[in-house]
Structures are given as structure tokens and as C-alpha cells.
């Protein structure tokens, strides 16, 4: 399976060291404010004041509040991408495709617990987050896992449906408004993954192993 990462949005790999440090400083200030107040309450003025710079510096760096939110999401997504492409199993390589698929969904739901508001804001801020590089990375990864597991048919379309079930907007609604514990949502993802890949439930497979 090809595990070469796709470029994430706003890739700054060629950015000069001092510029990269300043950008990191602004992102760290923004992340602290999001953690304290929630993403909807954070303004560009707030970020500038926390980082000790003028508001114009923030606008020159990120363009708009939506650009800042996307940059914050990129920082989080890079770490997540490193985990499922190069990290230890079962999330990373050297595990069976089904086990990696289950681990991917569980890790994504766990991320929503910590950064759900940021993820939700990024989904709503983008004109179409379905074309965002970070989304395409996850979609390509799930598609590859399905094919490696021997799933037939249009795996890209199937992967699109699976990834959609992990979007922060939906997970937050299920958790906060419908009252489903995050652990139950993660277990439901595991059940869904088993049914898609094997045609049977996880509990049914465990029963066969025991008997």
C-alpha cells in the first residue's frame, strides 16, 4: 500500500526558519485561546494581542480568520497524518488493514474529544472541505485500507461514506446533543468497519474465534 503522504493545505516546508518560528508562535497563541474560549469566540485581534504582535501581522500571515482556522487544523492534521502513515501499529503500518481501519476511526473520534470545536469550525469555514488536502489524505488512506483488505466495488465511494461518519460536526452532534458516549461511537465505528470488510459484525467474528 502506498503510504506517501499527500501535501496538507498551506504547506510551508520551504518557509525560512524565522518566518516558520513566527508562524508557530501565532498558531500556539491561537490554540491557547481556542482551548480557553472556544473557537467561535476567538478573533484576529485576540490572537495578535496574545502573541504580542500587531493585528496586521496576523492578517498578512493567514489572510483571514478562516485562514487562521485552516492553519490551526493543518497543525493538528499533520500530527494525525504522521500517526496513521508512519506511527506504531495498529494505527500505523505493520498491522492488518482491518485493524488499521478500526484504529483510524477510533483515533479520529478521540481527536474530536480534544479539538472538536476547531475541527467543526474548519469544516464550516471552508468553501468545500471535501477538496481540502487534509480531507483527501484521510480519504485516500481509508480507500487504500479497504482495497488492501480485499473489499471490492467502488472503494473510493465507500471510503467517502466512511470518512463522512467521522466528521467533527456529526460526532459532536451525536456526543453532545444525542448523548452517545464517545466510547460507544468508537465501538460503533469498529462494528461498521468489520461489517464493511468482512460482511459480519465484530462480535460474530469474536464468537467464531472463541468456538
Summarize this entry quickly.
The chain has ten helices and no strands.
Topology:
Layout: H1 17-37, H2 44-51, H3 55-62, H4 65-86, H5 97-125, H6 133-148, H7 155-164, H8 168-177, H9 182-198, H10 202-210
Radius of gyration: 19 Å
Total helices: the number is: 10
Helix proportion range = over 70%
Beta strand count: 0
Shape: elongated
Distance between the termini: 33 Å
Explain what this protein looks like in three dimensions.
- The protein is built from ten helices and no strands.
- It has helices spanning 17-37, 44-51, 55-62, 65-86, 97-125, 133-148, 155-164, 168-177, 182-198, 202-210.
- The protein has two domains: 14-63, Homeodomain-like (Arc Repressor Mutant, subunit A), CATH 1.10.10.60; 70-210, Tetracycline Repressor, domain 2, CATH 1.10.357.
- Helices cover 71% and strands 0% of the residues.
- α6 packs across α7 (155-164).
- The protein is elongated, with a radius of gyration of 19 Å.
- With 211 residues, the protein is an all-alpha fold.
Please supply descriptive tags for the structure shown above:
disordered N terminus, mainly alpha, Tetracycline Repressor, domain 2, 71% helix, 2 domains, Arc Repressor Mutant, subunit A, disordered C terminus
Amino acid at each position: 500500500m502506498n503510504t506517501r503522504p499527500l501535501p496538507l493545505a498551506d504547506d510551508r516546508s520551504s518557509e525560512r526558519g524565522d518566518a516558520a518560528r513566527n508562524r508557530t508562535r501565532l498558531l500556539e497563541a491561537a490554540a491557547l485561546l481556542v482551548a480557553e474560549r472556544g473557537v467561535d469566540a476567538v478573533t484576529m485581534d485576540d490572537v495578535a494581542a496574545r502573541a504580542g504582535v500587531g493585528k496586521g501581522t496576523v492578517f498578512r500571515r493567514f489572510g483571514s480568520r478562516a485562514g487562521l482556522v485552516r492553519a490551526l487544523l493543518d497543525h493538528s492534521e499533520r500530527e494525525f497524518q504522521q500517526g496513521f502513515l508512519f506511527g506504531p501499529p495498529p494505527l500505523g503500518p505493520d498491522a492488518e488493514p482491518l485493524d488499521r481501519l478500526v484504529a483510524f476511526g477510533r483515533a479520529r473520534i478521540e481527536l474530536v474529544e480534544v479539538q472538536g470545536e476547531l475541527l467543526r469550525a474548519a469544516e464550516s469555514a471552508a468553501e468545500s472541505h471535501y477538496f481540502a488536502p487534509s480531507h483527501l489524505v484521510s480519504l485516500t488512506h481509508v480507500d487504500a485500507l479497504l482495497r488492501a483488505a480485499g473489499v471490492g466495488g467502488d472503494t473510493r465511494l465507500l471510503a467517502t461514506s466512511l470518512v463522512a461518519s467521522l466528521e467533527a460536526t456529526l460526532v459532536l452532534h451525536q456526543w453532545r446533543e444525542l448523548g452517545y458516549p464517545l466510547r460507544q461511537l468508537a465501538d460503533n465505528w469498529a462494528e461498521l468497519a468489520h461489517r464493511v470488510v468482512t460482511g459480519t459484525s465484530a462480535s460474530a467474528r469474536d464468537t467464531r474465534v472463541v468456538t
